[in-house]
Amino acid sequence: MNATSETPKSGLDAVKWFGVLVLLTVLVAGNYMYELSALEKAGAIIVLAGLAAFLAAKTAKGAAFLEFAKEARTEVRKVVWPTRQETMQTTLIVMVATVIVALILWGLDAILLRLVSFITGLGI
């Protein structure tokens, strides 16, 4: 983003973020303080978290985040995903390469162990 596309900062942003903090604090404290059923707790969590998210979205940073999320979603839709066959072939290649490298490292480790054992005279 460049300077011309940035959203202007509102004077009420600090108040809105304070409101988000208060809502989330009430959510966490209420969850521990009140003995409610699971359904009531879930409902309260959804309502308070939703209000906090809505309030956060109304700030400059929240609006910028929403714009970024929309652009990211558009870009993800442009991705050409591999077919099942391509995925299986690539997975098989990675697994074979991993086994080959593991065998090479195991052999190198065995050679170095024998070499160090021979040089130091310790029968490891």
Helix/strand layout:
Layout: H1 13-33, H2 38-57, H3 60-78, H4 84-120
Helix pairs in contact: 1-2
How does this model look, in words?
The protein has 124 residues and is mainly alpha-helical. The protein is elongated. It has four helices and no strands. The model has no long low-confidence stretch (mean pLDDT 89). Helix 1 (13-33) packs antiparallel against helix 2 (38-57). 78% of the residues lie in helices and 0% in strands.
- Our estimate of the beta-strand percent is under 5%
Overall SS class: mainly alpha
Level of helix content?
Answer: over 70%
- Give the SSE string: HHHH
Query: Count the helices. How many?
Result: 4
Query: How many angstroms separate the termini?
Result: 61 Å
Strand tally = 0
- Which residues form runs of ≥5 with pLDDT under 50? none
Rg estimate, integer Å: 29 Å
Q: What integer is the average pLDDT?
A: 89
The biggest beta sheet reads: none
Q: What shape does the CA trace take?
A: elongated
